[in-house]
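Batch job 17 of 40 flagged for manual review because the log was empty.
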Amino acid sequence: MKTVSNYDKYPCVRVTGCAEDCLTGWPVITKEIDSRIRQLGKPAATIVVECYQGVHEAEIVSAFAAQFPDAAIMRASESMLPENVIQAFFHPDVTDDELFGYMTRHRIDRYFDLQKVAAARERLRTRRQDVAIVIGVGAAYLWPDADVLLYADMARWEIQQRFRRNEVGNVGMNNPDERASLQYKRAFFTDWRICDRFKKSVMKRLDYVLDTNRPGQPGMITRALFEEGLAQAVRQPFRLAPFFDPGPWGGQWLKEVCDLDREAVNFAWGFDCVPEENSLLLAFAHLRFELPAIDLVFAHPAELLGVPVYGRFGDEFPIRFDFLDTMQGGNLSLQVHPLTEYIQETFGMRYTQDESYYLLDAADDAAVYLGLKEGTDPEQMLSALKDAQQSGQFDAEQFVGKYPVKKHDHVLIPGGTVHCSGNNSVVLEISATPFIFTFKLWDWGRTGLDGRPRPINIAHAEKVIQWERTESWVRRELVNRVEKVAEGDGWTEERTGLHEQEFIETRRHWFTRPVLH
């Protein structure tokens, strides 16, 4: 490609009209907390630093011990249940499955030993030190009456990197050396659900928020600044901070268009807006503050989503979008997503992963696999898929429809539809948010980047495949269902996607002159 990238990898929401600024560095941060304690004028004060899963708690302990050398410092983890008890209790949610669990219904207290909690609270009440500091996941549960309450926040993408570097474990678990995918699964189904519930319960009581995404480079803002930043973000267009990841089928397009590391083997995914995973960057007077984008959803759900969407989905952002790059790469795995009733009953998720592929770029041989061939026999196809796990051979085109695609084509993919993107294309994947629930049928005989076979999920898939979605139905229902909505001087607006089985609508604007939206 011979273009200069204009893709902004660090989009910020500039927060204006604030006299305060972000504080950076542990000496500055802990000095501010010391000053706040002195202003209270209490003979005994307790500082509570509540942490999201994945935060380097030892770094915080060290920083506060340096500023408050005579303080009593207590780790919340010391009052938790033994690891084997936590593991056994959450096993019904974590399960033995390599990929899937059940969305936990539990809360922060389930990590803790009530006798240890009572003893810890008594030690805090009867301590001799002027200052006590409680730090960790559940610190604000252990001591809910903080004189100064900080929240050490963390974006999930950075947590995943820490899993991969074997730096952190799950809540209550000493498992930093466990395979990162298993740590991620435990976090997705239990830790993050519980931490999010607890975060929402303490957001209105916070005094400060900590940005702990960069080891050794913390930032801190007051709750007033945190709330003002989110309030300004929700009133304007904004982007999230994107992140990128390689994959076994990844391509080379994102490197050029998004100006990424040319030495990397490939980039398969460009996650541009997955609010549960991406960060939101707030730019204050001189410094930038990073926080999980989900904080904005929690703080302003109705304003952000609109009342009808909020009423249907609650404080979740139900749509995500990302890039799938197979240019000079390979096919995605042949896959299917669950039906709504299946995802609810089997995994405890309220809605399913409906999606669509919008073709941002495509080579002459680009194609999408979608639906089934006319007359496909379910037993024959399932038998061939199961045999392929041993033989390494599966003729996808014998059973699955394959459609040539070009730039600006749009393909709709409601749950239950067998599909995958082929090589030599770039897809803007517009999807419902529950992205982990992908049932792979066939992965073209390859391994993941870690050298391990990627898990195949035929047992789940065979329960949700909609066998009637054959070529005639696919052409009629799913491929380029474009409808003109409006037009004017130099512009046309089209609806390119809203299948009756999906809640995702997309609009496309063509224009030949500057137009006002």
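Reviewer: the log was empty due to a logging misconfiguration, but the result itself is present. The mean pLDDT is 95. Unflagging and moving on to job 18.
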